[in-house]
Design a protein that fits this description.
Layout: H1 31-49, H2 59-82, H3 84-113, H4 125-134, H5 136-170, H6 172-185, H7 194-200, H8 204-229, H9 233-241, H10 246-257, H11 259-283, H12 289-298, H13 302-330
Helix pairs in contact: 1-2, 1-3, 2-3, 2-4, 4-13, 5-6, 5-8, 5-11, 5-12, 7-8, 8-11, 9-10, 11-12, 11-13, 12-13
């Protein structure tokens, strides 16, 4: 009979540190992290401790500024120290965070602290924060109206562009009649036909919707047509051999094959629609970010005008990111075929 000795029980030595849990790993801060953190702390110290040269900064604005920095720094430090995914992402963006901190420091020093850039054309960070705070309701309303107008116009223009591109790319007869019109009217900037639009449409709002839609229609139509025309003939031959109908060939073969070109047209159309939106709101619509910018400029309220410009930039950035996410989800099958 063979007996085996019991396995030795390993006990931790006295004074030894207990093993850490898998998710409790610590990540030491990188030099870039320390630099960015130091720049933000320096900026907060300059904002609160150095007296202003021209006019005294509002304590409320300085408190808001310093509070926002403190919250951002605290969250940044905790995530970078405790979370692996957050550490990877934050280390990727650490140079940008440091550059933004340096830019805000220079901005604060050249405006509020030294007066090298004098008002009313130049505003300090405190003045910008006060503009966001004091005019928050009107800014929120203007942003909502701009987004609504953009959504309506972009949707109409995208649908019209897709329909035009599919029809001209699939049918030679439609292409014969529609392509000259597309090539003639499409390149015309929406701002050029602004007086005609406001004469033909009963309200300025409908005219603004048309201008935004017109800016989207041309790039989407042209690139959709090019994408459908570029689908390989072999795909259609195989589908027809299996008994596919014309509807199947269009929606299951041609359109999916043209999706990369369609999304390129949507990206170009989004940029054109944003430009058309700004022009329409500057000259016609009585609410929205473009209207707000023009209105505040007339009163020489430059900090409020800059606040609206910042909101418009952020909105454009978010829309582009949203369209990128939609593109990535729809074209997930392309990741192994092309370099994104």
């Amino acid at each position: 009979m063979v007996t085996t000795a019991p396995a030795a029980v390993v006990t931790p030595e006295a004074g030894a540190a207990p093993a850490k849990a898998p998710g409790a790993r610590r990540y030491p801060p990188t030099p870039g992290f320390v630099l960015g953190w130091s720049l933000w702390v320096l900026t907060a110290a300059v904002t609160l401790l150095v007296p202003d040269e021209l006019t005294a900064a509002s304590p409320r604005a300085a408190g808001i500024l310093f509070g926002a920095w403190t919250i951002a720094l605290t969250g940044w430090a905790i995530l970078a120290y405790r979370s692996a995914p957050a550490t990877v992402r934050l280390r990727h963006w650490t140079p940008w965070i440091a550059v933004v901190a340096a830019w805000v420091l220079v901005w604060e020093w050249t405006t509020a602290k030294t007066g090298w850039l004098q008002p009313p054309h130049f505003a300090s960070p405190q003045q910008m924060l006060l503009a966001f705070y004091d005019d928050a309701g009107l800014l929120a309303s203007s942003t909502w109206h701009s987004l609504l107008l953009l959504l309506i116009g972009f949707s109409i223009g995208a649908v019209a562009g897709l329909a035009t591109g599919i029809a001209t790319g699939w049918s030679k007869a439609v292409s014969y009649w529609a392509n000259p019109i597309l090539q003639t009217l499409g390149p015309v900037p929406p701002a050029t036909i602004l007086p005609l639009v406001f004469v033909l449409f009963p309200t300025t709002y409908l005219g603004s919707v048309f201008m935004v839609a017109f800016g989207v229609w041309f790039p989407v139509a042209v690139l959709t047509r090019a994408g459908i025309a570029g689908v390989g003939r072999g795909y259609f031959d195989v589908a027809q051999t299996l008994g596919a109908s014309n509807r199947f060939l269009i929606w299951r073969v041609a359109v999916p094959g043209a999706l990369p070109s369609i999304f390129t047209g949507l990206f170009m159309g989004l940029g054109a629609s944003l430009a058309a939106l700004a022009v329409a709101e500057l000259l016609g619509v009585k609410n929205g970010l473009g209207w707000y910018i023009q209105w505040t400029k007339g009163w020489a309220a430059y900090p409020r005008m800059y606040a609206a410009i910042v909101i418009m930039i952020v909105v454009c950035r978010l829309l582009i990111l949203g369209l990128f996410r939609l593109r990535n989800r729809a074209l997930d099958w392309q990741k192994d075929l092309v370099r994104w």
